[in-house]
UniProtKB/TrEMBL annotation, chains A, B:
GO terms for biological process: tetrahydrofolate interconversion. The keyword Transport does not apply. InterPro entries: Formate_THF_ligase (IPR000559), Formate_THF_ligase_CS (IPR020628), P-loop_NTPase (IPR027417). Its EC number is 6.3.4.3. The gene is fhs. This is Formate--tetrahydrofolate ligase. NCBIfam families: PRK13505.1. It comes from Pisciglobus halotolerans. GO terms for molecular function: ATP binding; formate-tetrahydrofolate ligase activity.
Length: 543, 543
């Protein structure tokens, strides 16, 4: 269906759109500005248990749920993150849902789409060039070349760029120094774009980005460099949400895609807030499991969105629960009711967490062919005992038809429950208090240990007035703890905070636990080896 | 005017286009394929004398000529290169003509446009990542890390990236080695895109790119790495010509923009060939002066285009002729008839060169307010004595009205002259013979000296069968010689060839004379400092 017809469904006219071909469009910011005082619809947050190699299908369920809501007559918009080219070329090929629960045009979305990632890469690297140029051209701000924290970025998997030396080859090539490249989705530029409410807000956030320290150890910002206008200009189109559709023609905003460890892991603020104005139901998802994605959605994004979810959907599979119950990937085909039971404690913890936030939750059991009747029966019984609503979904196989039970139960949950959102911590908490709150209440840990450097940074940040910001914990996505091997519901663990990274533009402080890779590598046989385009235009190997 | 109305003028339907908003579109490759057997229209090549800081206005005259041709009732398409973000952010702000002879939407064209440059950057760096990954993952092809010739690229001015070390920080970050970044327009990827006639041709060219030598000193190609399919996939949209318009609504293809020193400096083959099928008159331009741009257009692009120009327009200004006659930039405001006379020998050489190719030429004298009556009279007289047609243009000030005399004379020249294109050299010439031909006949030099390395390379390339390719000389644009200080018409100079760079994908051998900078730097006060975007969407400082 042409994108204008999709736009019609949510009352967007031709003038509200910037077309990118017949199947993609951006929504003009002045339209968004006009919608500002409209009433919000209902917000449904899709999250999951901690991911396992067995796969949970969170995006697929999000797509299927949106289609099913549309199918039962609810005006619905889906808001998703946009993919990065790095993983597409590397590990997995492209993705935006799967089976009969997909977002289209999938090829475009997984390649250059509307150029947002490229605009971010360009703005990121333009800023890096301005910094190096400033040092080269007299260094009026006295930037310390050994303390430039702003890294370069590419939207690719390229381990050789993780750590580099730049400015080599003699005086005319600038100041030699150590540097590195992040994948664009890990860059603060992406987080800034995703949390900006307008061009003015974007510029205000850009100004606050700390790029380096000067020789006195004081922070140097984009404002000091006077380039926020040029950077905002490079990002002006990227700030507009992208409109596409599911294969069942539900409108979808695919916009922004920050990492869920080093950043907050949700699609853009503008996409979600605009969807809320245009539809009765907005379905959105958060990255990784609920400990990382949902926590950050609720503690970092919601304060800006000024709207908490009306319901949370936690996606599980029996396979994944069995892995959390101690079964190895190769043994998942075998029935193992006991493992489902053992794994259930993991799901239970995430359910408790949503209760803690005061949010109604429902479990979506995403069907796999290997699920057995006994396993299914046990899981249903366990959920019933806890009084948790649940629905089985088969949207990959059956599209919206496979999600109707879930859609109806979600609507029922929203209509019968009064959410009373309770934030996890107030802004006035110290950094240490905030992290303790997250670790103890959300992860279920015993406490937090801080490195000497982390302690020094907390003191310094407090003096600089940065401690009012929320915390973004960079942690393994595989476990509630910071040890990827500890599946299920680990107890009595402590989380070690190695270092903080202030992201003043994004508006949060990243707490690094363990080693976080911000530039992935390619596997021995990259997905790219199978990709091709024929003279007919036919594409192979992208999915 | 909406782009569909512009497309209507040249009989392109909605189905032939991929819209990028209301004012930009790409032309589908299957439409281009369908046009293959249509008759070609007339081709007008706009070139100039060697550029000076006084400015010649070649692009402005190209735009004005196309508008004037349209104005006098000729179906006309203009085909231009697309700009790079690096210089836009750096030295000069954006550009696509000027005054009343402009291409619009100028803001878009000078920012991300339709994403072609970003696709090229991505393909370039994906290839680099595949190479480094191959070496890291066992290095089956035995690529020598010290002999990787494929560099990374960004579409920015960034001197700190000219020479870098990658793969630092330990074993898991790949193989440490020296590397560097070129500006994207200097990358072979750009030249490949600009000379490809189809997706198949693009893939064939990609396959042939030499990226490195193996430990035995043998060339390693993209074909060996098996990634031409993935790279072509990344470039499939970028291969489609972009349609925009002049402010007087003449259709313009703005597509591809390779450097005119390290590459061949013209817009894409597909843009020019498609324009020839769709209009009676195609106006196109070549980079820098006629010694670099026109020579490469004629000896590198024409063999693939299979169509030589029907007329060549050489743009001059009295100011620039005075500089070639020895006047300093600061003294240009003063009348100096003698300097015009001295500078005329420079123009004369370029006119002789066009005669050498068998092409009818006309001089466009682009007016400046500082031109005096005496200077004008002398220049007219000199041209008359030589029997060279000429026309004064004031398209910057007056749009198409300022180019009518030129347009009428160009049409008259085409209708009354039979061009008989004579290529400068046959493919069978040796590399040395080809370079001698260019230097002696086009530059007017006495001979060529080759470094020891260049001689070794010529032998090696001959053995590898690469010597049938045309030569792309990388030389200063400011002089007919390889010394930028030698203005006018220098004599008895030799050109020193330092080194060759085989560009097997592009299909030419680059001969490096002197130092060629393939990654520019930013000035002390980059243009970016003045750029801004307001909440209203208004842009300032881009031009």
């Amino acid at each position: 269906m042409e994108i204008q017809s999709i736009a019609d469904k949510i009352h967007l006219t031709k003038d509200d759109l910037e077309l990118y071909g017949n199947y993609k469009a951006k929504i003009h910011l002045d339209k968004i500005e006009h919608l500002k005082n409209e009433k919000n619809g209902h917000l449904i947050l899709v999250t999951s248990i901690n991911p396992t190699p067995a796969g949970e299908g969170k995006s697929t369920v999000s797509v299927g749920l949106a289609d099913a809501l549309t199918h039962i007559g609810k005006s619905t918009i889906l808001a998703l993150r946009e993919p990065s080219l790095g993983p597409t070329m590397g590990m997995k090929g492209g993705a935006a849902g799967g089976g009969y629960a997909q977002v289209v045009p999938m090829e475009d979305i997984n390649l250059h789409f509307t150029g947002d990632l490229h605009a971010l890469t360009t703005a990121n690297n333009a800023l890096a060039a301005f910094i190096d140029n400033h040092m080269y051209q007299g260094n009026e701000l006295q930037i310390d070349p050994d303390n430039v924290s702003w890294k370069r970025a590419l939207d690719l998997n390229d381990r050789a760029l993780r750590q580099v030396k730049v400015g080599l080859g003699g005086k005319t090539n600038g100041i030699p120094r150590e540097d590195g490249f992040d994948i664009t989705v890990a860059s603060e530029m992406m987080a800034v774009l995703c949390l900006s409410a307008s061009i003015e807000d974007l510029k205000a956030r850009l100004r606050q980005i700390v790029v380096a320290e000067n020789t006195k150890g004081e922070p140097v910002t984009v404002e000091d460099l006077k380039v926020e206008g040029a950077l905002a200009l490079l990002l002006k189109d990227a700030l507009q949400p992208n409109l596409v559709q599911t294969i069942e023609h539900t409108p979808v905003f695919v916009h922004g895609g920050p990492f869920a460890n080093i950043a907050h892991g949700c699609n853009s603020l503008l996409a979600t807030s605009t969807a809320l104005k245009l539809a009765d139901y907005t379905v959105t998802e958060a990255g990784f499991g609920a400990d990382l994605g949902a926590e950050k959605f609720l503690d970092i994004k919601v304060p800006h969105l000024k709207k908490a979810p009306d319901a949370v959907v936690i996606v599980v599979t029996i396979r994944a629960l069995k892995m959390h119950g101690g079964v190895a990937l190769k043994d998942l085909q075998k029935e193992n009711v006991e493992a489902v039971k053992r794994g259930f404690v993991h799901l239970e913890k995430h359910l408790q967490n949503m209760q803690r936030y005061g949010l109604p939750a429902i479990v979506a059991i995403n069907e796999f062919s290997s699920d057995t009747k006994n396993e299914e029966a046990l899981l249903s019984q366990l959920l019933k005992e806890k009084g948790v609503p649940a629905a089985r979904t088969s949207v990959w196989q059956n599209g919206s038809q496979g999600g109707i039970e879930l859609a109806e139960k979600v609507v029922d949950l929203i209509e019968t429950t009064e959410p009373s959102f309770m934030p996890l911590y107030p802004a006035s908490f110290t950094i240490e208090e905030k992290i303790n709150k997250i670790v103890k209440e959300i992860y279920g840990g015993a406490g937090v240990s801080f490195s000497k450097k982390a302690r020094q940074q907390m003191n310094q940040f407090a003096k600089r007035g940065w401690d009012h910001l929320p915390i973004c914990i960079a942690k393994t996505q595989y476990s509630l703890s910071d040890d990827p091997e500890k599946l299920g519901c680990p107890k009595d663990f402590t989380i070690s905070v190695r270092e903080f990274v202030p992201k003043l533009g994004a508006g949060f402080i990243v707490a690094l636990t363990g080693k976080v890779l911000t530039m992935p590598g390619l596997p021995k046989q990259p997905a790219a080896l199978k990709m091709d385009i024929l003279e007919t235009g036919e594409i192979t190997g992208l999915f």
